[in-house]
């Protein structure tokens, strides 16, 4: 079962990586890969895992700013939309 919001987040992060500095681009690609894996996993991520991803992405957005931050914010919106469907906290 694909989790569309997580797939959307991965796509936004790949777009952000294209505009980012080398170090941030590598981190964004890694995050995108992880979201793609989570989107197709048998079981979706829990709130804790999503919170850790949100923290990393917020840090990258703050460091890079501009267009990169805009794309990361779009990815974060997708993550938060998915998170609303997760039971628990």
Automatic annotation (TrEMBL):
Pfam families: DUF7553. Residues 9-23 have a biased composition (Low complexity). Residues 1-29 are annotated as: Disordered. This is Uncharacterized protein. It comes from Halosolutus amylolyticus.
């Amino acid at each position: 079962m694909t989790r569309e919001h997580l797939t959307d987040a991965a796509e936004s992060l790949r777009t952000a990586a294209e505009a980012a500095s080398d170090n941030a681009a590598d981190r964004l690609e890694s995050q995108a890969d992880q979201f793609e894996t989570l989107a197709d996993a048998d079981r979706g991520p829990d709130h804790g895992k999503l919170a850790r991803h949100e923290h990393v992405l917020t840090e990258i957005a703050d460091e890079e700013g501009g267009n990169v931050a805009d794309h990361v914010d779009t990815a974060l919106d997708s993550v938060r939309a998915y998170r609303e469907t997760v039971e628990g906290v």
